[in-house]
Structure formats: C-alpha cells, structure tokens
Design a protein that fits this description.
Layout (H helix, E strand, L loop, with lengths): L9 H11 L5 H7 L5 H27 L3 H12 L5 H28 L8 H24 L2 H27 L1 H10 L3 H20 L20 E5 L11 H9 L4 E8 L5 E3 L11 H4 L13 H4 L6 H6 L10 H8 L6 H11 L2 E6 L7 H15 L6 E3 L5 H7 L4 E2 L15 E5 L5 H9 L3 E5 L4 H10 L3 E4 L2 H4 L11 H52 L1
Parallel strand pairs: 1-2, 1-9, 2-4, 4-5, 5-6, 7-8, 8-9
Antiparallel strand pairs: 2-3
Helix pairs in contact: 1-5, 3-5, 3-6, 5-8, 7-19, 7-21, 8-21, 10-15, 15-16
Family: Belongs to the glycerophosphoryl diester phosphodiesterase family.
GO molecular function: glycerophosphodiester phosphodiesterase activity
GO cellular component, one term: plasma membrane
Length: about 550
C-alpha cells in the first residue's frame, strides 16, 4: 500500500507511539519493513466510521437534553433512585467522542507524514467496545424512547443549515490526507475507488441544501408573534413543582398559564400533585412510613398537610439551577406544603393568569366524583371561567353543561368530521409538524406544545407560529426576544454558494499542491536508490 518516505522525524515518531503503542523511529520502521497494508486501511476505515458514529450520538445526546428530566422521573419511578442522568450521559459521550477523535487525528497526521497506520490491538478492542456501547445506546433509545427520533428530525430544522456548513468543512479538510494517500499508493483500483466515493460524497453535500427546510428561513417581517409561556407545574427549575412558590415564580417569568395536575384526597379535597405516589416530591417516607406505596388519593387532606413538599427540591436538586438559588429562595422552598386547588385558584386569580390542569388518575373508579368535586371548587372560587383551561377528557360533556364558560383544551388533533369546533389543542411538540402548526394558526386554533425547554426548540416552534409552549425553563425563554437565528432565503442561498465554491477551491488546491510535492520527492528517492545500488555492487566486488 502506501510507502513511507523514509524520513526520520521526531514528530512522526511521537505520532506512531500513541497510535501503534510502540516506540518506532523512522529508521527502525524502514529496517523492519513496516508498511500500511490492506488490513491497516480497513481498520482506519473502521476508525473513521466509529468517529462518525460517536459524533451522531453526541448530536442525539444534545437533542435529548430537552427531555432528559422526563427520563430522570421515569428512572425514579422504576428504581426509586434520583440521579441527574445528564451528567452521566455527557461524561460518557465526551469520553467516547474524544477517544475516537484523537485516534483519527493521529491517523490522519501519520498519513500526511507518510508513516504506517499500524493500529495497536488494544485500540482495536476499545474501538469495537465503543461501537457496541453506542449501538446499545441507540437501541435503547429506539425501544424505550422512540419519540426522541422525532425530536432529532425536528432539530434538523434548527441545525440543518449549520450542520451542512460543518460537514462540508470537515470533508474539505479530508482532501489533504486523501490526496496524500492517493499520491503514495500504488494501487490504481484503490485510487479510482476512493476518488469516486469522495467526489460522490462532495457532490451530494454541495446539493444538500435543496433538501434542507427550516421554518426559520424567512423574512423578518414574516416572523409570527412570540409564543406565550405556560409554566409546567409552575417554574420547576426555580421552585418545588406544583407549589404556590412555583406558581409565583412562573408569574415572575411572565408565564400566562399555570399548568398543573390535580388529585382528590380521600376526604374530597382537590390538591396539586403529579405523581400517583408521594415519594418523589414529599417526605412521606419519614412521616408515614407504612403508607409510602399508597396512591396519593388514599391520604386525607389533614395527612397531606403534614408533609413537606419543598425540602426534596433542595436535597435532590432536580435541575442544575437549584445551585444558584438565593438564600431567601432556599428558605422559602424548604417551607412549601402541598397546596389545595382552592389555594392555587386564589393565587391564579390574584395574578390574573390562567390555569390548565389534568385530573389524575384517569382510571380511578371514582373519577366522575373527582370531576364533580373539582368543578365545584372552581365554581365556588369565583375565578372567571375563561381563565380555566380544562384538559381531562373524561365526562367533558358534563363539564360543558355545568360550567359553559370553561375553555376546553383537547389532547388530540382535530378530526375531519368534528361536530364541535376545536379551539385549543395541547400536544407533545413531536406530534405536530411546522406545516400543521401553520394550518392550525390560519384556522384560528390555538396550539400549545409541551415540554419545550431548549432555546433551539423554542426558536423552531416560534418560527412555525405555535401559540404557546409548556416549559420548565420559563426563566430562559422569557429572555429570548428573537429566535436564535433567522435567515432570509436570499441570504441562505448566498451562504450556500459561497461555502460550496470555497470548498471546491480548497480541494483543488490540496490535490495540486500535494501532487507537486510528490513529484519533487520522486527524483530524490530515485537518486537515493541508484546510489544505494552502486554502493551494494562495490561491496560485492
């Protein structure tokens, strides 16, 4: 395969040491006849694929960060263990990406120096393990968290134009080691194959923007209004979820709606709680150790008021933002109790915002009574009914008759033969495309999507024209005065053309320059061979 140039370089020796795990100088290498074989080339190709594989996983890890709190809650329900898995995810991902990146850089530098690509067996085993770990991660994602594939597709609307520029840049830089290898190798078939593959990849990349679509490629004057913010259980990054403190923090973040979950106690008092068990967000294990596994609805209101609903937030730190809380906020969080629906409605009324809620558990045998009790508290509170957004589907017709002013929000898309007009829908952000959002907006249907925490996702939905988003990070989205990026189509076209032209010129320059270098080296190598032959003949005589 590729012949080493026979130069003795300290730099080349230092590159060989970590890649081949042995200290081989250029002279020793020539004496031992080390040369890049077909097997070595195969391992280099495998290394390149692993590098791309880990990069794709890194991209997915960044994308799923928006929904990772749901994963933390899922693990807690299964194992009763709270851990911020984002740290584990990114540490493991950083190790895998860094390892494959360093190896690839060493291999490319060795190729440019004309050194053999003798990958050590330890690296080979570690690369195979890396491939298995990443493959297992993707498999688990596909089995347990399939909606994240939709999230990745949506993310391409935010990152597509910039990923294109990055990939074109990376493939352009790859022209240097590729040209060096082609001018050194003796196999014509391999040369032709590599050139064809590289040219096909570059042509596909140059034309890729034809398939890239993003709602943020638009004129400034076409940008829809900023989506309203719905506080998911309040402001759970700043206060214990589903507490009055969390509600007030959501108001400070300019949230227009307080989203929560309602359960009804054993003695008929509706209260705010998301989980069917109290273990995650209260100290029920310490106060009622024999009733820990019971459903939240099995407790009386008097028992619920004995529980601490705030200290867990400071101890478990469900979000990194807990570390930055002031001493005053920490003191207030530690005093939080489980609020009743009546208390929450009073706070909502005072702050002139709306409240949207689910009524849990839906499969309870006494669910109709839960609906009636909840509706009774709403009517007695004196809150304007247009500020109440009703999510539960069960016994919805009864609610419409008893409280006709309540706004009904549906957790589904509208049907073709809808008997009554659907004015509000509440869906996961993965379930609606940009085209559907635009169509609903044209038809005056309010669309709320959940749960949106990352600015890139908020930007895409903003450009699409969504009415509101449910978020954990209201304090972050509040500060956004504009989408992260907004490009007129003419500007994007200009960027596309410039990037492709610069890339093509750099590739041509790389091949021409390295060809000249190879031509200069050939006469010197020939003169050396002739001299060595003459010396050998004289010694034999």
């Amino acid at each position: 395969m590729a012949d080493p140039p026979g130069c003795c370089s300290t730099c080349a020796t230092c590159l060989l040491c970590p890649y081949s795990c042995q200290w081989i100088t250029a002279k020793n290498e020539k004496r031992k006849g080390l040369r890049t074989t077909k097997c070595d080339c195969s391992w280099f190709f495998f290394l390149f694929c692993i590098f791309l594989f880990t990069l794709v996983w890194l991209y997915f890890a960044i994308i799923i960060l928006n929904d990772l709190h749901n994963f933390n809650e899922f693990i807690f329900k299964q194992r009763k263990l709270w851990l911020d898995w984002s740290l584990v995810l990114f540490i493991a991902t950083a190790v895998l990406v860094s390892y494959s990146s360093v190896l690839l850089v060493l291999a490319l530098c060795l190729q440019l120096c004309g050194q053999p690509l003798k990958l050590h067996w330890v690296h080979k085993i570690l690369l195979i393990l890396t491939a298995l770990v990443v493959a297992a991660a993707f498999t688990g994602l596909g089995i347990k968290w399939t909606e994240e594939w939709k999230s990745a597709w949506i993310s391409l609307q935010a990152t597509g134009p910039f990923l294109h520029i990055g990939v074109v840049g990376g493939m352009t830089l790859l022209a240097w080691p590729l040209a060096s290898f082609i001018y050194r190798t003796r196999s014509t078939g391999l040369k032709v194959f590599l050139l064809l593959v590289y040219c096909a990849a570059m042509i596909a990349l140059y034309l890729a923007p034809l398939a890239i679509t993003s709602p943020c490629i638009m004129e400034e004057n076409q940008l829809p209004p900023k989506p309203a913010l719905v506080g998911h259980r309040g402001a759970p990054m700043l206060a214990p979820e589903n507490t009055l403190m969390s509600l007030h923090k959501a108001v400070e973040c300019d949230a227009q709606v307080f989203e929560t979950d309602i359960m009804v106690s054993a003695d008929g008092v509706p209260f705010l709680m998301h989980d069917e068990e109290l273990t995650r967000t209260t100290n029920v294990q310490a106060v009622f150790p024999n009733k820990t596994a019971l459903n939240s609805t099995a407790f009386t209101w008097t028992e619920l008021q004995k529980l601490d609903a705030g200290s867990w937030f400071l101890e478990r730190k469900p979000f990194p933002t807990v570390h930055s809380l002031s001493a005053e906020d920490r003191h207030e969080a530690a005093k939080q109790k489980i609020p009743s629906l009546g208390q929450a409605l009073e706070a909502v009324k005072q702050n002139n915002i709306s409240i949207m809620f689910d009524l849990r558990p839906e499969n309870h045998t006494d669910y109709q009574n839960f609906v009636n009790v909840t509706l009774g508290v709403i009517l007695q509170s004196g809150i304007p009914l247009q500020q109440v957004l009703w999510l539960p589907d069960g016994f919805r017709e009864d609610v419409k008759q008893q409280a006709p002013g309540v706004q009904h929000v549906y957790g589904r898309k509208r049907l073709e033969n809808e008997q009554e007009p659907v004015l509000h829908v509440n869906l996961p952000y993965q379930d609606m495309s940009s085209e559907e959002i635009r169509q609903y907006r044209q038809d005056n249907i309010s669309v709320n999507l959940y749960v949106v925490n990352q600015p890139w996702l908020f930007s895409v939905l903003w450009c699409s024209g969504v009415s509101s988003v449910t978020t954990n990070a209201c304090q972050v989205l509040k500060e956004m005065k504009h989408p992260i990026w907004l490009l007129p189509s003419s500007t994007y076209l200009m960027i596309w053309i410039v990037v492709d032209c610069v890339s093509l010129l750099v590739i041509i320059w790389a091949f021409v320059l390295l060809k000249k270098c190879s031509h200069r080296r050939q006469p010197a190598e020939c003169d050396t061979d002739v001299l060595l032959t003459k010396i050998n003949s004289l010694m034999q005589e």
